[in-house]
TrEMBL record:
<protein>
    <submittedName>
        <fullName>Putative phosphosugar isomerase</fullName>
    </submittedName>
</protein>
<feature type="domain" description="SIS">
    <location>
        <begin position="48"/>
        <end position="199"/>
    </location>
</feature>
<dbReference type="GO" id="GO:0016853">
    <property type="term" value="F:isomerase activity"/>
</dbReference>
<keyword id="KW-0413">Isomerase</keyword>
<dbReference type="Pfam" id="PF01380">
    <property type="entry name" value="SIS"/>
</dbReference>
<dbReference type="InterPro" id="IPR001347">
    <property type="entry name" value="SIS_dom"/>
</dbReference>
<dbReference type="GO" id="GO:1901135">
    <property type="term" value="P:carbohydrate derivative metabolic process"/>
</dbReference>
<dbReference type="GO" id="GO:0097367">
    <property type="term" value="F:carbohydrate derivative binding"/>
</dbReference>
<dbReference type="InterPro" id="IPR046348">
    <property type="entry name" value="SIS_dom_sf"/>
</dbReference>
Length: 437
């Protein structure tokens, strides 16, 4: 009988966990396919990027929501170094509520939209906000589906680059797995296309290391996930802090909100949050590949090891480090082939296998169905966020003071089907948002 993440296939289907697990373990195949697709469009990509690099004072905005925003945040620093341009990462959920905070000046803009479906209200409205406020706008679409409104509306327009992501990336499960790592892969390859051969070798090595993880290390993940925890603390430095945030999101989603978790930067942990180790806590470290950063992180690991009390410590790194091994309960190290990874944004693919598999197995341990997040038949949460109705601001080309005022609320039986609406107005730009619980 075939096993997936160490679980029998028929058992996964019985508990509604098959699709999440099969999509999760299929990621290495998607990575290799993604590299191939990028290679087939290499000249087109290089031409577009050369044009962007030649534009004086170009600002680059990376925009997404949820896991897509975290993917954008992970690559932000690397893109800034590669392009040597001003790069801003903004969650679309923040952007649409107060665009004056982010879109300042009249410099040319490259808007990079990260998304799974391309159908979220915030993502679509973010594009319109930039179109209204930017005199010279270019777009790069990193979207997992070509069937969404984002790609249909903008994908073929002049000044827009869209390279299809491998079919099958956007899966049936609610929680994003491949939809998360493929966004990171495409962002790295598109902005760093001149190093295509490096990435081709990187993902060949990563796929081999992934196979070893699924074959051997997955049973260590079972051992960790089968223990009860009052909370889970996930730690990472710089770009890896956003991977820690993604792990917490996955834990929350896949356990149906039953498992508490929190994320911090590694050094921030000693500034108060470490007190959670007084209770039964799982502390997971995502170690940087940067030697200086790792020295700080190992120092924090030693401190946690000395003060662990009832806690369990998990360490994740690329290369084996004996000093790390000596101060944790479980240790995952991935780089079996000694590949020279250049940046922390390049190691998140393998680290994601630990965070995703743990989150799935923790859900199974708690009796939650990973594919449906337990009893989610009433649509308590949705794969594509819903319930936001955006009514455009009347923007006059200059920033105006923004003040929030509570207008009114009432229960409306028609035509709003008995739902409770809360209305807020931003005085000064007349923007009204309706939110539907």
């Amino acid at each position: 009988m075939m096993r997936i993440l160490g679980l029998r296939e028929n058992e996964l289907k019985k508990i509604n966990g098959y699709f999440t697990c099969i999509e999760m373990i299929n990621q290495p195949n998607l990575w290799l396919e993604g590299v191939k697709i990028i290679g087939e469009h290499k000249q087109e990509i290089q031409k577009f990027m050369d044009q962007m690099n030649s534009i004086k004072d170009l600002k680059i905005f990376l925009v997404g929501a949820g896991s897509s925003a975290k993917a954008a945040s992970i690559v932000e620093n690397y893109i800034r170094r590669v392009t040597k341009k001003e790069v801003h990462c903004i969650s679309s959920t923040n952007l649409i509520t107060q665009p004056d905070n982010y879109i300042i000046g009249d410099e040319p803009v490259l808007l990079v939209s990260f998304g799974s479906s391309g159908n979220t209200i915030e993502g679509l409205e973010a594009v319109e906000i930039f179109q209204e406020r930017c005199k010279e706008l270019y777009q790069l679409l990193i979207i997992c589906s070509d069937e969404g409104e984002m790609v249909k509306k903008y994908g073929a327009k002049e000044g827009v680059l869209y390279i299809p992501i491998p079919p099958g990336t956007k899966g049936k499960s609610i929680a994003a797995t491949g939809e998360f790592t493929l966004l990171i892969q495409y962002a790295l390859l598109l902005f760093d296309i001149q190093n295509y051969d490096y990435y081709k070798e990187l993902f060949q090595n990563a796929s081999r290391d992934a196979a070893r993880f699924f074959d051997k290390d997955i049973y260590k993940v079972h051992s960790i996930a089968n223990q009860p925890y009052e909370t889970i603390a996930v730690l990472g430095s710089n770009s890896l802090a956003f991977l820690a945030a993604e792990m917490c999101l996955k834990i929350t989603e896949l356990t149906g909100g039953l498992q508490s978790s929190q994320f911090h930067s590694v050094l921030e942990f000693r500034h108060g949050p470490k007190v959670v180790m007084n209770s039964k806590t799982l502390v997971s470290f995502f170690f940087s590949r940067d030697p200086l950063t790792m020295k700080y992180e190992i120092d924090m690991l030693k401190e946690c090891s000395e003060d662990k009390r009832k806690s369990t410590i998990v360490a994740v790194s690329m290369d084996y480090v004996s000093e790390i091994d000596a101060h944790c309960d479980y240790y995952f190290h991935f780089n079996g082939n000694g590949f020279p990874y250049r940046d922390d944004a390049h190691i998140v693919f393998l680290y994601s296998l630990y965070l995703q598999s743990f989150s799935i197995l923790k859900a199974v341990n708690l009796g939650i169905s990973p594919d449906t997040l337990g009893n989610n038949a009433d649509g308590f949460i949705n794969k594509v966020a819903q319930g936001v109705i955006f009514i455009k601001n009347e923007w006059k080309g200059e920033s105006t003071p923004t003040h929030w005022g509570f207008l009114s609320f009432k229960k409306c039986w028609a035509p709003f089907r008995g739902r409770l609406y809360f209305c807020f107005m931003r005085f000064g730009d007349q923007g009204i948002f309706h939110s539907e619980p």
